[in-house]
Amino acid sequence: MMSQQNPFQNVSHYYENQDPAQVVRTSLATDLVSKPNNKDTYLTFTGQETDIGLDSHIPKNYNEFMKNNKKVFAGPPPSDNKDSFKAQQLIDLQTVRSKLFVRGPRGMVGLKKNFKMMDRDNSNCLNFQEFYQGLLNMKLDLKELRAKNLFDLADADKSGAVNIDEFIDLLVGPLNSFRQRLIDLAFKTLDRNGNGFLEIVELESSFNGRRHPECISGEKTAEECKVEFMSLLKSHHNSSTGFKGSMRVSHKDFKKYHEIMSIFYERDNDFRNLLLGIWSIDLRQVDPQSAGGQRPKSVGKTSKEQ
């Protein structure tokens, strides 16, 4: 079943009670520095696990730095505060994730569509102004400094441009090998001629809405599940191909869309049930002559013994 709990709820709640124009310097940040051996605090603050004490992650003079900088710092922090700045960037990333998550899959797909609309030279990359405008179009209520933090986090090579797909990947996060194999299996099963592409009409005819988890639970009808899923898939595909009206979905595009869908299924088994069901990849064509229901050739023997 699709997860109803927002995994970023704590971060979202934290931000709702802060002045968005100020750098984080609340009790959460205080805990991060005052409890250097508390691994849970670091995990909450950065979204990452650590096997060592926090002393190596956060500079000793963090509190002093925040105390002397009441206003927002516009540029990169001093070299001895790089870890604190990175932690702030990760907080901003979690905040955007949280706001998109509550909108369901439409949030992530909508963000990619807005970014592609800003990509006027069709380079699949955005400068900061294009990047910020795309975020504004999504009404995420994100201040310019917070957007700049995200931009700098995604612009790892400091080229002054952010790759759209790489930023979406940053928001979605890495997929484990089990889920990657499921997506690859679904594509391979649907790509019957092995040409590496799937036609939109082929996907629509293959989609089984009756086996969608939300149909099984009674939340939606099979047709509602199909219309919603396919409309988002087509919107994502249209964005990925630069709004050229392409009707052929590549393996990469198919995979990227299902990676977005994956974040709304917390358990691997739930995501497995989704893919096995809607694409019927657990069903196989059976030779009628060898199908079940026939009379045994020999009485008293199992099919294996025969």
UniProtKB/TrEMBL annotation:
<feature type="domain" description="EF-hand">
    <location>
        <begin position="106"/>
        <end position="141"/>
    </location>
</feature>
<dbReference type="GO" id="GO:0005509">
    <property type="term" value="F:calcium ion binding"/>
</dbReference>
<dbReference type="Pfam" id="PF13202">
    <property type="entry name" value="EF-hand_5"/>
</dbReference>
<dbReference type="InterPro" id="IPR018247">
    <property type="entry name" value="EF_Hand_1_Ca_BS"/>
</dbReference>
<feature type="domain" description="EF-hand">
    <location>
        <begin position="142"/>
        <end position="177"/>
    </location>
</feature>
<dbReference type="Pfam" id="PF13833">
    <property type="entry name" value="EF-hand_8"/>
</dbReference>
<dbReference type="InterPro" id="IPR002048">
    <property type="entry name" value="EF_hand_dom"/>
</dbReference>
<keyword id="KW-0106">Calcium</keyword>
<feature type="domain" description="EF-hand">
    <location>
        <begin position="178"/>
        <end position="213"/>
    </location>
</feature>
<protein>
    <recommendedName>
        <fullName>EF-hand domain-containing protein</fullName>
    </recommendedName>
</protein>
<dbReference type="InterPro" id="IPR011992">
    <property type="entry name" value="EF-hand-dom_pair"/>
</dbReference>
<keyword id="KW-0479">Metal-binding</keyword>
<dbReference type="InterPro" id="IPR051581">
    <property type="entry name" value="Ca-bind"/>
</dbReference>
<keyword id="KW-0677">Repeat</keyword>
